Amino acid sequence: MLSLRSNKFIGEIPSQLCRLSSLIVLDLANNELFGIIPKCFNNFSLMVAKETPDDLLVALQYFGYEIHDESLVLMTVGRDFEYEGILKYMRMIDLSSNNLSGLIPTELSQLVGLLYLNMSRNHLMGSIPEKIGRMTSLLSLDLSTNRLLLQGRIPLSTQLQSFDAFSYIDNAQLCGAPLKKNCTQDGESQINVDIIEENEESSEMPWFYISMGLGFIVGFWGVCGALIFKKKWRYAYFQFVYDMRDWVYVAVAIRLNWFQQLFAEAVGK
């Protein structure tokens, strides 16, 4: 069991964690972790195995666990629950309330013995992997509040549709049961429109900058080139600059003299 909840840890989840093959509880919730979720979580062999409680107890003893009647506080769908005396049967991953980003690794779907999976309140994006529906042991799944980046249809499976809609809330582009949003009418079509518009905008941006650069080059050399190759134009241009300089100097001098006279008259009164 590795519980590092609420410690203000900063950084990426180290891939070395995947070497803890006998891990049954990984709780990294409520920190400031960023980056992607490691794909190697499928190395947690006790979460991959779908065993009965008796089989799991034998496996834990094989890996050297001492069995005690301990308690565990587990957050599911935004609420804390305390589980007493069942820690030896617990298989859980909680990565909620961090700054994790990127796609949900399809490798997570190999953890068919996992009971609790919480990845809420992060910045995960993309669609929910279809194979997650094979995790038939899941008692709780929470993907809520991922900054509106999760999108597409919730994979059709008895397992995923059995969870409450709160497991998927605050992801505006998700659609399909158990959410009320219909993919055929509002979900997938709208997502496709958004993707098309985004692609069109992204394809227009390079041409915008290219045209700006070409315009600058043509304008710059149109003026400077004429001054370089036309001697009369060059003399006329610099004569104009000198005349403007003299005019500005005289105008400023006259204005300053006028202000000094006004100031002297005001002081004299």
Please summarize what this structure is.
This protein has 269 residues and is α/β, with parallel strands linked by helices. The chain contains 5 helices and 13 strands.
Description:
The structure is a single chain. The protein has 269 residues and is of the alpha/beta class. Helix content is 38%, strand content 17%. It is built from 5 helices and 13 strands. The strands form 4 sheets. The protein has a 5-stranded parallel beta sheet with strand order 1-3-7-9-11, with no helix packed on it. It has a 4-stranded parallel beta sheet with strand order 2-4-8-10, with no helix packed on it. The termini are far apart.
Q: Show unreliable segments.
A: 186-193
| Coarse structural class | alpha/beta
- Terminal residue distance: 90 Å
**What spatial form do the alpha-carbon principal axes imply?**
elongated
Mean pLDDT: 76
| Biggest pleated-sheet summary | 5 strands, parallel
